[in-house]
Amino acid sequence: MILEGTVLRGREFDPIRGRVVVEDGEITAVEEADVRGDDIILPAFVNAHTHIGDSIAKEAGGGLSLEALVAPPDGLKHRLLDAADREELVDGMARSLRFMRETGTGACIEFREGGVEGVAQFEAASTDVDIESVVLGRESIDAMERSDGFGASGAEDGEFSAERSATADAGKLFGIHAGEVDSGDINPAMDLDPDFLVHMVHAGDVHLERLADNEMPVVVCPRSNIVTDVGRPPIRELLDRTTVALGTDNVMTNSPSMFREMEFTAKLFDVTATEVLRMATVNGAAVGGLDCGLVAEGRDARLLVLDGGSNNLSGAEDIVRAVVRRAGIGDVKDLLTPAT
């Protein structure tokens, strides 16, 4: 398979006119050439933090605090999940996965509530949706063993040393929420030596230096943090010290569109368009241990093709900036995966 147009090549997303050659699901060549066509070829997005189980309750609980919305075990989300039947939950998750794919997401890292059964529900929902999913079970070691790792709610919600040890022994990923409401749970979370942290809204200087010293990645979800009124993550300071990826968090409160997350981040924070696109692609892939996220030889061919001649993108002079700040679902022409 050969894709031609403007290719956003490598970690810097250098826009070149040329082609991408794909063989057996792998990018085998990225070539500069005099080609025709308005297509923009870039890595498919990696949504590095999702909770899609609450897809049955979009925009429920407006105005509630973060604790009232999602804190286990009695937050509104958990009460709604407990009351819903399995078919409803699976259908809601499948719809969110399909929407994610329609909006350019080729992979996601899902924190999966509900123990072993919650992991099984996600498996059922994703059967017919070609998205590469890294699923982190929650609430039990059994859920971790059924999935790709363990996704802890936060150090103030429980003591996770047994889960961390079991996850390490299994050679799987361990992620944990930290610093979302305040800074009190950041050091205890970091003491667990997680593979990555989520949120870090209230990271202080001491935490930032620990991140740098330990090269510990962070996933930020800025739209979610604004909706729940917990503050704004220090994205510039985080980027200066470690790998930072981008996620959309709960479907209950935010559409799982990486286009929206990128635009919001680019316009409200001291970051470049290239940095934001990196957060939405290769950095998320690095957090999840995935081999996608770049248009480069040897990478998995999980690629997004946008219509650069659309009414929205036609005339763009800075392609990367246009992709990050302007592009949307109406510009998506195709999403190529290794299974295509």
Can you tell me about this structure?
It is a single chain. The chain has 14 helices and 15 strands. The chain has helices at 66-70, 76-83, 86-102, 115-125, 141-146, 161-170, 186-191, 205-214, 222-227, 235-239, 258-268, 273-279, 282-288, 319-325, and strands at residues 2-9, 14-23, 26-32, 39-43, 45-51, 105-112, 132-137, 149-152, 173-178, 196-199, 218-220, 244-246, 249-250, 303-307, 332-336. Helix 7 (186-191) links the parallel strand 9 (173-178) and strand 10. Helix 12 packs across helix 14 (319-325). The model has no long low-confidence stretch (mean pLDDT 95).
Taking the sheet with the most strands, its summary is: 6 strands, mixed
> With helices defined by DSSP (H or I, 4 residues minimum), what is the helix count?
14
CATH homology superfamily name of the largest domain: Metal-dependent hydrolases
Compute the number of structural domains: 2
Write a brief caption for the model.
With 340 residues, the protein is α/β, with parallel strands linked by helices. It contains 14 helices and 15 strands.
